[in-house]
């Protein structure tokens, strides 16, 4: 069963993403992320995001001495997928923002599934309900996303569509989750009354977990 019809909804253009990262992260709430990977339509409403900025953001992959092989996708063009592998087991889906040449990306942290639930469940080992997609690693697996999606433009195998929007009174804002630096910045946005928001708490990463990259930057909870 599908609760979403892509033919009846407008796709988000690259101009939507060519704006300040924090604005895009907020306005992605309520939008629908659609995957056609593997020939199967799967989709979910975005209910949680985190903004990652440029070199001044200590939690960002762009907090380096410049463009690297790892972070180059963050520098544009906007409206592309930035996917990386973490913990040796999880892929993370980010959507590139800002004008080309300026680093920025929004991590999709949680979705509410609306299409292809059986496929999602199969990809997630039989899981169902919020556990399908209430974390960035979980939703990437449910949508069939891996490193082959890194750098691809949105619009074909992976796309984002307009949603119904989320009113301000339903939007929560907090620090980011699981970072060793920059976790206190109010760059996480989520739908307050959604059962599909991730269960992890905002704040510094737990001790004993691995980190992403040099100096422990950008460490997300799957």
Could you walk me through the main structural features you see in this protein, from its secondary elements to its overall organization?
- By secondary structure, the chain is of the alpha+beta class.
- It has a single domain, classed as Roll (3-methyladenine DNA Glycosylase, Chain A), CATH 3.10.300.
- About 10% of the residues lie in helices and about 25% in strands.
- The chain has 4 helices and 10 strands.
- The strands form 2 sheets. Strands 1, 2, 3, 4, 5, 6, 7 and 9 form an 8-stranded antiparallel β-sheet that branches. The protein has a two-stranded parallel sheet with strand order 8-10.
- The chain is globular and about 45 Å long.
Give a short summary of the structure.
Helix content is 12%, strand content 25%.
List keywords for this structure.
eight-stranded antiparallel beta sheet; 10 strands; alpha+beta; 222 residues; 12% helix; 4 helices; 25% strand; 3-methyladenine DNA Glycosylase, Chain A
Q: Could you tell me the strand content as a percent range?
A: 25-35%
Q: What is the CATH topology descriptor?
A: 3-methyladenine DNA Glycosylase, Chain A
The CATH class turns out to be Alpha Beta
Terminal Cα span: 27 Å
What helical percentage do the residues reach? 10-25%
Largest sheet: 8 strands, antiparallel
Number of H/I helices: 4
Number of strands: 10
Low-confidence stretches: 208-222
Class computed from helices, strands and strand pairing: alpha+beta
Shape: globular
Total domain modules: 1
Topology of helices and strands:
Elements (H helix, E strand, L loop, with lengths): L13 H4 L3 H7 L4 E4 L6 E11 L28 E6 L3 E7 L8 E11 L1 H7 L12 H8 L14 E4 L9 E4 L2 E3 L8 E4 L11 E2 L18
Parallel strand pairs: 8-10
Antiparallel strand pairs: 1-2, 1-6, 2-5, 2-9, 3-4, 4-5, 7-9
């Amino acid at each position: 069963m599908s609760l979403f019809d892509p033919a009846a909804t407008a796709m988000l253009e690259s101009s939507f993403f060519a704006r300040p990262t924090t604005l895009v992260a907020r306005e992605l709430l309520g939008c629908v992320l659609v995957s056609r990977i593997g020939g199967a339509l799967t989709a979910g409403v975005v209910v949680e995001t985190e903004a990652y900025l440029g070199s001044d953001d200590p939690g960002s992959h762009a907090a380096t001495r410049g463009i690297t092989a790892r972070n180059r996708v963050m520098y544009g063009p906007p409206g592309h997928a930035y996917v990386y592998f973490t913990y040796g087991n999880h892929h993370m889906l980010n959507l590139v923002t800002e004008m080309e040449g300026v680093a920025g990306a929004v991590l999709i942290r949680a979705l509410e599934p609306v299409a292809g639930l059986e496929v999602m469940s199969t990809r997630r080992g039989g899981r169902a309900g919020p556990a399908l997609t209430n974390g960035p690693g979980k939703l990437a697996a449910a949508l069939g996303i891996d490193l082959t999606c890194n750098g691809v433009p949105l619009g074909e195998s992976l796309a984002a569509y307009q949603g119904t929007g989320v009113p301000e009174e339903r939007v929560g804002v907090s620090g980011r989750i699981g970072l060793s630096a920059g976790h206190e910045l109010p760059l996480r946005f989520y739908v307050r009354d959604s059962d599909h928001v991730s269960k992890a708490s905002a704040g510094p990463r737990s001790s004993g977990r691995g980190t992403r990259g040099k100096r422990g930057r950008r460490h997300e909870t799957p």
